[in-house]
Amino acid sequence: PLGGLKGHPFYYYALCELVARGSSLCHAQASAYKPTAGTQANVKGMVHGLCICYHHTVGTHCEHCQDLYQDHPWCAAEPGQPHTCQKCKWNGHAGSCHFDMLLYLASGNVSGRICDTC
């Protein structure tokens, strides 16, 4: 008020419209969501909690690279840089691989893959 706040310890507001915005927990690695187990799929306006991942990511929030796509470290996507998980070059001799940061740094950030059970 123009007269100041003297004598008015509280103000009361009424909301007639509220717009809430936020960002997803999918690390910009998904643009769609699916319901978690036990939730209703057809609730109007509800945003579900499981990310439908892309860029070869997996996890509830797309926080890991898929198996055989762990040649580089996982990283959240950024505008203009999706940080796609890179496929391991495994020559068909392994069913899985894992990422090793020390190997990645030793290779000059070229590759950090270690093939499992070659």
Automatic annotation (TrEMBL):
GO terms for biological process: animal organ morphogenesis; axon guidance; basement membrane assembly; cell migration; substrate adhesion-dependent cell spreading; tissue development. Keywords: Disulfide bond, Laminin EGF-like domain. The keyword Disulfide bond applies. It comes from the Eukaryota. SUPFAM superfamilies: EGF/Laminin. PANTHER family: LAMININ SUBUNIT BETA-1 ISOFORM X1, NETRIN/LAMININ-RELATED. This is Laminin subunit beta-2. It comes from Neovison vison (American mink).
